[in-house]
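A quick aside before the break. I want you to see a complete sequence-to-structure record at least once, exactly as it would be stored in a machine-readable document. Don't worry about memorizing anything.
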Amino acid sequence: MLTNTQGQLYLCATPIGNLEDITYRVIRTLQEVDIIAAEDTRHSIKLLNHYNIKTPMTSYHEHNKVEKARYLVDQMKAGKNIALITDAGTPAISDPGEEIVKQAYEAGVKVTSLPGACAAITALTLSGLSTRRFCFEAFLPTDKKEKRKILEELKYDTRTLILYEAPHRLKKTLNELLEELGDRTITIVKELTKKHENVWKTSISEAVNIYSEQEPRGEYVLIIEGKSYEEMDRENKSQWESISIEDHVSLYMKQGLDKKSAMKAVAKDRGLSKREIYQSMLK
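That is the input. The structure line, written in tokens, reads:
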């Protein structure tokens, strides 16, 4: 339970490139809090200097996130207000911020989020692909087995897929996407909001070809078309072409369905009407 003397945690979204992409509320909050916890203080000092923010900073990053979160939570319980910022974008999205948020809630410290720039959402809106349903995977794991498992799960996902990728891994990732997901439409976005921002809507195979001849530069967001329902229907139908309709019906009946229900299931599998299945059975 919060007390009157307790501080709180402010998750402050910062620019992902262009320094003007920051809200008045974030600037005011950064000026008013007692401490700013920054992923890289050397990087964030440029932003603070730009807006003449004099608030003390402390480092909070992947390698100290557990212990440092405990310390910062104790500071908030003692009455300090703390703002958390990442190198770019919204804190706690694919960065160490989620740990301090978790610990703050466990300690009963109030948390609020000040919205602003987010590379994943900005790139998605630029992609020209479906934005109604999407899946954010951030950076794929470096472990080969874990990465393959995730890509196998995503292979049949109909949602638009969002990935982050570093330039030195882009070629390998594109090849893995082509191998595991097949050739799909992809929008490759780099250097978001910066002077050399580039948005390229193409196919995965074309991207593989182009980057085999040129070296990737900049930070990338990959927006990948989800598997279409039409393609899934085609694949579902094709898997039954090797057996007869009679054997297909028999397969369902062996699983406990009555003949009428089995025929209905077969019609759905094959994209046919129940009448067509019935007539085939008569023949």
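Two observations worth writing down. The two ends are 74 Å apart (CA to CA). The chain has a mean pLDDT of 90. We'll return to this after the break.
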